[in-house]
Amino acid sequence: MTRSTTRIAHLRAAGVSFVVELRTPVPRVLHWGEDLGELTDDGLAALALSADAASLHCALDEPRQFTVWPTQADGWSGTPAQEGHRAGTATAPRVTMTGAEESPAALVIALRDTDAGLDLTLTYRLDPSGVLAVRTRMSCPAGAPGPGPYDLASTTALLPVPNRAQEILDFTGKWCRERSPQRGRLAFAGHVREVRRGRPGLDAPHLLTVGVPGFGFRTGEVWALHVGWSGNQRWLAERLPEGAGVHGGVLGGGELLTPGEIRLAPGDSYTSPECYFAWSAEGLDGLAGRFHTMLRSRPGHPSSPRPLTLNTWEAVYFDHRPERLLALADDAAAVGVERLVLDDGWFLGRRDDTAGLGDWAVDPQMWPDGLTPLAERVHAHGMQFGLWVEPEMVNLRSRLAREHPDWILGPSAGLGPSSRHQYVLNVAHEEAFAYLLESLDGLVAEYGIDYLKWDHNRELHEAVHRDAHGGDRPGVHAQTRALYRLMDTLRSRRPDLEIESCSSGGGRVDLGVLARTDRVWASDCNDPVERQAIQRWTGQLLPPELIGAHVGGPRSHTTGRVADDSFRLITALFGHAGIEDDLTARTPAEREALTRWAALYKEVRGLLHGGRVVRGDLADDATYLHGVVAPDAGAALYCWARTETSVPAQSGRVPLPGLAPGRSYRVRIRTEAGLPSMHQVVAPAWYRAAVEDWVPMPGTVLTGAGLPMPTLNPGQALLIEAAATDTAH
């Protein structure tokens, strides 16, 4: 790598600047955040001069610096960028820059840790969306010094944030309550989240955000991190009393490694997961917009209209009588479904969840003619045919477990407790990998499968690989890489195949798995009250077209709550919409309502899956206002919903976010999904008029003054459509 002749590297995109001073021994981060403009040499020099902090009492004699590879060698007492050792030595990393290359969109810095005998390549890539992706490659060249391999404990990508970032938001959750926000003050300490589940988990941090106190959806300066990895993870936000150089604190993340998991012998290397950092001066919607723009610009991002999907799980569960499923396919086609997915229960011995996992062949007792009759019926209706699989798991009551017990990921001393009656298949075992690849590829080819719902229903506890001599080695990293390779190889063989990431619902929602899948199943919960929150926060990272959102039956199968048709239908509209219900059990009137809703989805999905997601900052937590606005602000569709009762009797004027104040609009209430019931005698006048016809409204009224929203009963929602009546300028 050649040395850069530029002393200061400045990457810019979409209102973001990232500035690094390429000095020795270690470059330092001068700025990450708001665009500083096209700085002259004098301006860059001034930025570097202002990056020297004061020297403090009882501290280092020289001002602390925040470098691109912060360690104690810089006087950094927080989480270091590198931890590891070589047989108990080389525990104090001290790196030196050996070269750097800069392009308009990327900065690559080469570092050398002479004591540990390691070469490091640190890559910063600033996406046109303004999202900064950071990745590290660590290699051990031939002739590395010292005894034994280098045992890598961690690498952490770290970026600075200013002192004003004193409030933190991240997420937790459980089954059917994924991505529940938790928010508070960022104190002088480390807010550290370590994921040890072998997947991001139902309680995943999802997107760790720090910002100025009081930041909301539409306002406030915020900085955020996502760890794009489907295995164990570490996330942190950290503030020390002395700061981080001239900065106030740091955001950081990476893979959480088990001791002994990565051992670098001469010739070996390790590449970290990509960590994604984003900044916005426009609150959480600004962050979401950056991630949505980045994801939509991927070459493999779904480009065809997202088909209305029916999944059979809550319709039939394990009752796979072919005649019942053929009738369901007919009814699905009649209401406008475009993809039917056959869920769990189709393979050998699968009558419940205690047996069969791993035996990926159609059960001839249940399906004497194979899946051909159903696949042909589905395709004859012009629908796509999808299939549920769980390749990474195995039941002990299966032919695979009996014949290949060594393929199970678990300790030599014996397997621990099962979860959902299943264990983990070691996908990194080459024979197991080959078996899965050929089984899945064969099914796709035989039945013309268009779509796989790829599930993952247990956590990876005691995930160790057993060798022939009874030696146990940590296996989560290898398992995650093997999963990626399996998906990538299958997709290379079947480029038209689409895959959904499902993991006990929303337990594997990350940008690592989304690099090779086409959507996520946000949650096993279809209760619209819960779904309003789950979809809101899943959308903080992912655009609606990547989020599976289905209409369930009137009574939720996971909560028991009964919800009106209109609330269920409107909630499911704001995603990749589908149905999770037995249509054969619905009345003609109910199927007609679904047919109208299906037509509405097809009409508006171009807007929903290509526009900007916006959310209103409301004082009443029982109400939701969210929507999608066209890129030119010429059209929008909003949901106004209430999930529970609250003290305020009226909402007052509520602005519609995202529209252009200087434009003229008309608004109406869409009624295809039904109208809500009200907790009032007479609705506001504009609402009554908008139910009947379009109502003209200036943009200043809609975005500035706002509209007085009707007071809905709990568990109710309505759709507001806005359309510009002038030409954008």
Automatic annotation (TrEMBL):
PROSITE patterns: ALPHA_GALACTOSIDASE. It comes from the Bacteria. Its EC number is 3.2.1.22. It is an enzyme of class 3 (hydrolase). Keywords: Glycosidase, Hydrolase. It holds the Pfam family Glyco_hydro_36N. GO terms for molecular function: alpha-galactosidase activity. The keyword Ribonucleoprotein does not apply. Residues 27-265 form the Glycosyl hydrolase family 36 N-terminal domain. It catalyses: Hydrolysis of terminal, non-reducing alpha-D-galactose residues in alpha-D-galactosides, including galactose oligosaccharides, galactomannans and galactolipids. This is alpha-galactosidase.
